[in-house]
Amino acid sequence: MTISMPTTPASASAPATATASAPAPTAQRILAQSLFEVKAILRNGEQLMVALFIPLGLLVMLATTNLIEINTGEWERLDFLVPGVMAMAIMSGAFTSQAIATAFDRRNGVLRFLATTPLGRSGMLWAKVAAVFSVALIQLAAVAALAAALGWRVSPANLVVALPAVVLGVAAFTGFALFLAGTLRAEGVLAIANILLIVLVVAGGIVAPADQLPAGLGAVAQFLPSGALGDAMRAALIEGKLAVLPLAILAAWSVFFAALTAKTFKWQS
Predict the structure, then answer these.
(1) What is the C-alpha separation between 129 and 169, in angstroms, rounded?
(2) Model pTM?
Protein backbone atom coordinates (compact mmCIF):
# COMPACT_ATOMS: atom_id res chain seq x y z
CA MET A 1 0.00 0.00 0.00
CA THR A 2 1.35 3.40 -0.96
CA ILE A 3 0.81 6.36 1.38
CA SER A 4 1.09 9.75 -0.26
CA MET A 5 1.73 12.94 1.71
CA PRO A 6 -0.94 15.61 1.38
CA THR A 7 0.07 18.55 -0.75
CA THR A 8 -0.69 22.21 -0.12
CA PRO A 9 -2.21 23.98 -3.07
CA ALA A 10 0.02 26.69 -4.50
CA SER A 11 -2.78 29.17 -4.17
CA ALA A 12 -2.93 28.58 -0.40
CA SER A 13 0.80 29.04 0.22
CA ALA A 14 1.36 32.08 -1.99
CA PRO A 15 -0.33 34.68 0.22
CA ALA A 16 1.65 33.57 3.29
CA THR A 17 4.94 33.86 1.38
CA ALA A 18 4.02 37.28 0.02
CA THR A 19 3.00 38.53 3.44
CA ALA A 20 6.19 37.29 5.10
CA SER A 21 8.46 38.96 2.52
CA ALA A 22 6.62 42.27 2.24
CA PRO A 23 8.50 45.19 3.81
CA ALA A 24 7.00 47.13 6.66
CA PRO A 25 5.25 50.43 5.89
CA THR A 26 7.57 53.38 5.27
CA ALA A 27 6.66 55.19 8.47
CA GLN A 28 7.30 52.06 10.52
CA ARG A 29 10.71 51.54 8.91
CA ILE A 30 11.71 55.16 9.57
CA LEU A 31 10.51 54.93 13.17
CA ALA A 32 12.45 51.71 13.77
CA GLN A 33 15.65 53.18 12.33
CA SER A 34 15.26 56.44 14.26
CA LEU A 35 14.84 54.50 17.52
CA PHE A 36 17.97 52.52 16.69
CA GLU A 37 19.87 55.79 16.05
CA VAL A 38 18.70 57.27 19.37
CA LYS A 39 19.78 54.16 21.29
CA ALA A 40 23.14 54.18 19.52
CA ILE A 41 23.75 57.81 20.53
CA LEU A 42 22.73 57.22 24.14
CA ARG A 43 24.96 54.12 24.36
CA ASN A 44 27.99 55.84 22.84
CA GLY A 45 30.08 57.45 25.57
CA GLU A 46 31.76 60.02 23.32
CA GLN A 47 28.53 61.15 21.69
CA LEU A 48 26.77 61.27 25.05
CA MET A 49 29.54 63.44 26.47
CA VAL A 50 29.30 65.90 23.57
CA ALA A 51 25.50 65.93 23.46
CA LEU A 52 24.70 65.94 27.18
CA PHE A 53 27.53 66.07 29.69
CA ILE A 54 29.35 69.09 28.23
CA PRO A 55 26.21 71.32 28.12
CA LEU A 56 25.24 70.27 31.66
CA GLY A 57 28.78 70.88 32.93
CA LEU A 58 28.87 74.28 31.23
CA LEU A 59 25.58 75.25 32.85
CA VAL A 60 26.84 74.36 36.32
CA MET A 61 30.11 76.23 35.76
CA LEU A 62 28.47 79.38 34.40
CA ALA A 63 25.67 79.40 36.98
CA THR A 64 27.81 78.79 40.07
CA THR A 65 31.06 80.64 39.26
CA ASN A 66 32.18 83.93 37.76
CA LEU A 67 34.98 82.45 35.67
CA ILE A 68 33.31 83.88 32.56
CA GLU A 69 31.87 87.37 32.77
CA ILE A 70 28.62 87.78 30.88
CA ASN A 71 26.54 90.95 30.87
CA THR A 72 23.03 89.74 31.67
CA GLY A 73 21.51 93.22 31.67
CA GLU A 74 18.30 93.39 33.67
CA TRP A 75 17.89 89.63 33.76
CA GLU A 76 18.90 87.18 36.44
CA ARG A 77 22.10 85.32 35.55
CA LEU A 78 20.48 81.88 35.42
CA ASP A 79 17.53 83.12 33.35
CA PHE A 80 19.98 84.59 30.86
CA LEU A 81 22.29 81.57 30.72
CA VAL A 82 19.82 78.70 30.30
CA PRO A 83 18.64 79.59 26.75
CA GLY A 84 22.23 79.80 25.53
CA VAL A 85 23.15 76.47 27.09
CA MET A 86 20.06 74.90 25.52
CA ALA A 87 21.13 76.32 22.16
CA MET A 88 24.58 74.82 22.68
CA ALA A 89 23.02 71.44 23.52
CA ILE A 90 21.04 71.52 20.28
CA MET A 91 24.16 72.41 18.31
CA SER A 92 26.33 69.77 19.97
CA GLY A 93 23.79 67.00 19.39
CA ALA A 94 22.53 67.96 15.93
CA PHE A 95 25.88 69.05 14.52
CA THR A 96 28.98 67.71 16.25
CA SER A 97 27.67 64.35 17.40
CA GLN A 98 25.71 63.67 14.21
CA ALA A 99 28.49 64.75 11.85
CA ILE A 100 31.02 62.44 13.49
CA ALA A 101 28.66 59.45 13.72
CA THR A 102 27.50 59.78 10.11
CA ALA A 103 31.04 60.26 8.79
CA PHE A 104 32.25 57.04 10.40
CA ASP A 105 29.11 55.16 9.31
CA ARG A 106 29.90 56.32 5.78
CA ARG A 107 33.52 55.23 6.00
CA ASN A 108 32.59 51.82 7.41
CA GLY A 109 30.03 51.14 4.68
CA VAL A 110 26.99 51.33 6.96
CA LEU A 111 25.32 54.07 4.91
CA ARG A 112 25.84 52.19 1.65
CA PHE A 113 24.29 49.08 3.18
CA LEU A 114 21.27 50.92 4.59
CA ALA A 115 20.69 52.64 1.25
CA THR A 116 20.11 49.21 -0.36
CA THR A 117 17.54 48.07 2.23
CA PRO A 118 13.79 48.81 2.05
CA LEU A 119 14.53 51.83 4.26
CA GLY A 120 16.17 53.51 1.25
CA ARG A 121 18.21 56.69 1.14
CA SER A 122 15.39 59.12 1.83
CA GLY A 123 14.08 56.95 4.66
CA MET A 124 17.49 56.82 6.28
CA LEU A 125 17.86 60.61 6.14
CA TRP A 126 14.39 61.13 7.63
CA ALA A 127 15.25 58.62 10.35
CA LYS A 128 18.41 60.58 11.19
CA VAL A 129 16.47 63.85 11.41
CA ALA A 130 13.84 62.22 13.65
CA ALA A 131 16.58 60.73 15.85
CA VAL A 132 18.38 64.06 16.20
CA PHE A 133 15.15 65.81 17.12
CA SER A 134 14.36 63.12 19.71
CA VAL A 135 17.82 63.44 21.24
CA ALA A 136 17.42 67.24 21.27
CA LEU A 137 14.24 66.90 23.32
CA ILE A 138 16.11 64.64 25.77
CA GLN A 139 18.95 67.18 25.97
CA LEU A 140 16.58 70.09 26.58
CA ALA A 141 14.69 68.15 29.24
CA ALA A 142 17.96 67.35 31.03
CA VAL A 143 19.17 70.96 30.87
CA ALA A 144 15.78 72.22 32.06
CA ALA A 145 15.76 69.75 34.97
CA LEU A 146 19.25 70.75 36.08
CA ALA A 147 18.42 74.44 35.67
CA ALA A 148 15.26 73.99 37.75
CA ALA A 149 17.33 72.35 40.47
CA LEU A 150 19.58 75.42 40.40
CA GLY A 151 16.56 77.72 40.77
CA TRP A 152 15.48 78.43 37.19
CA ARG A 153 11.80 79.12 36.61
CA VAL A 154 10.13 79.58 33.23
CA SER A 155 6.60 80.06 31.98
CA PRO A 156 5.18 77.02 30.11
CA ALA A 157 4.01 79.47 27.44
CA ASN A 158 7.62 80.53 26.84
CA LEU A 159 8.59 76.89 26.29
CA VAL A 160 5.94 76.65 23.57
CA VAL A 161 7.22 79.84 21.95
CA ALA A 162 10.71 78.31 21.87
CA LEU A 163 9.62 75.29 19.78
CA PRO A 164 10.10 76.96 16.35
CA ALA A 165 13.66 77.85 17.31
CA VAL A 166 14.31 74.26 18.43
CA VAL A 167 12.90 72.76 15.21
CA LEU A 168 14.75 75.16 12.92
CA GLY A 169 17.94 74.85 14.95
CA VAL A 170 17.86 71.06 14.66
CA ALA A 171 17.14 71.32 10.92
CA ALA A 172 19.96 73.80 10.24
CA PHE A 173 22.64 72.00 12.24
CA THR A 174 21.62 68.53 11.07
CA GLY A 175 21.90 69.74 7.48
CA PHE A 176 25.34 71.19 8.25
CA ALA A 177 26.37 67.90 9.87
CA LEU A 178 25.25 65.79 6.92
CA PHE A 179 27.00 68.12 4.48
CA LEU A 180 30.33 67.68 6.28
CA ALA A 181 29.85 63.96 6.86
CA GLY A 182 28.94 63.34 3.23
CA THR A 183 31.87 65.17 1.66
CA LEU A 184 34.92 64.86 3.93
CA ARG A 185 36.93 61.96 5.31
CA ALA A 186 35.83 60.72 8.73
CA GLU A 187 39.03 61.85 10.45
CA GLY A 188 38.65 65.32 8.99
CA VAL A 189 35.03 65.55 10.13
CA LEU A 190 36.08 64.47 13.63
CA ALA A 191 38.57 67.35 13.88
CA ILE A 192 36.49 70.02 12.15
CA ALA A 193 33.25 69.26 14.02
CA ASN A 194 34.95 69.49 17.42
CA ILE A 195 36.85 72.66 16.52
CA LEU A 196 33.73 74.34 15.15
CA LEU A 197 31.80 73.45 18.31
CA ILE A 198 34.38 75.26 20.44
CA VAL A 199 34.64 78.25 18.10
CA LEU A 200 30.88 78.72 17.81
CA VAL A 201 30.34 78.37 21.57
CA VAL A 202 33.03 80.98 22.31
CA ALA A 203 32.50 83.38 19.41
CA GLY A 204 29.35 82.32 17.60
CA GLY A 205 26.69 84.07 19.65
CA ILE A 206 25.55 80.97 21.54
CA VAL A 207 26.28 81.69 25.21
CA ALA A 208 27.25 85.35 24.85
CA PRO A 209 24.92 87.23 22.47
CA ALA A 210 26.38 88.71 19.29
CA ASP A 211 25.98 92.25 20.62
CA GLN A 212 28.41 91.42 23.45
CA LEU A 213 31.13 90.23 21.09
CA PRO A 214 33.74 92.53 19.51
CA ALA A 215 32.10 94.72 16.87
CA GLY A 216 33.29 92.95 13.71
CA LEU A 217 32.79 89.49 15.18
CA GLY A 218 29.36 90.33 16.53
CA ALA A 219 28.18 91.62 13.15
CA VAL A 220 29.01 88.24 11.61
CA ALA A 221 27.88 86.06 14.53
CA GLN A 222 24.29 87.27 14.47
CA PHE A 223 23.87 85.87 10.96
CA LEU A 224 25.44 82.50 11.76
CA PRO A 225 23.11 79.60 12.63
CA SER A 226 24.66 79.57 16.12
CA GLY A 227 24.00 83.26 16.78
CA ALA A 228 20.51 83.09 15.32
CA LEU A 229 19.65 80.07 17.46
CA GLY A 230 21.01 81.70 20.61
CA ASP A 231 19.07 84.92 19.96
CA ALA A 232 15.85 83.04 19.16
CA MET A 233 16.09 80.90 22.31
CA ARG A 234 16.78 83.92 24.54
CA ALA A 235 13.88 85.89 23.05
CA ALA A 236 11.51 82.96 23.55
CA LEU A 237 12.52 81.76 27.01
CA ILE A 238 13.28 85.12 28.62
CA GLU A 239 10.71 87.40 27.01
CA GLY A 240 8.21 84.96 25.52
CA LYS A 241 8.68 86.47 22.05
CA LEU A 242 9.18 85.02 18.59
CA ALA A 243 12.38 86.55 17.23
CA VAL A 244 11.41 86.89 13.57
CA LEU A 245 14.82 87.77 12.09
CA PRO A 246 16.79 85.01 13.90
CA LEU A 247 14.11 82.45 12.96
CA ALA A 248 14.26 83.60 9.32
CA ILE A 249 18.05 83.23 9.39
CA LEU A 250 17.75 79.70 10.77
CA ALA A 251 15.17 78.82 8.12
CA ALA A 252 17.48 80.14 5.39
CA TRP A 253 20.41 78.09 6.71
CA SER A 254 18.18 75.00 6.88
CA VAL A 255 17.17 75.34 3.23
CA PHE A 256 20.76 76.11 2.18
CA PHE A 257 22.29 73.09 3.91
CA ALA A 258 19.49 70.79 2.75
CA ALA A 259 20.09 71.80 -0.87
CA LEU A 260 23.86 71.61 -0.50
CA THR A 261 23.68 68.15 1.08
CA ALA A 262 21.36 66.87 -1.64
CA LYS A 263 23.93 67.91 -4.27
CA THR A 264 27.15 66.82 -2.57
CA PHE A 265 26.39 63.91 -0.22
CA LYS A 266 28.33 60.74 -1.08
CA TRP A 267 27.10 57.47 0.38
CA GLN A 268 30.51 55.86 0.49
CA SER A 269 34.07 57.11 0.92
Answers:
(1) 12
(2) 0.86
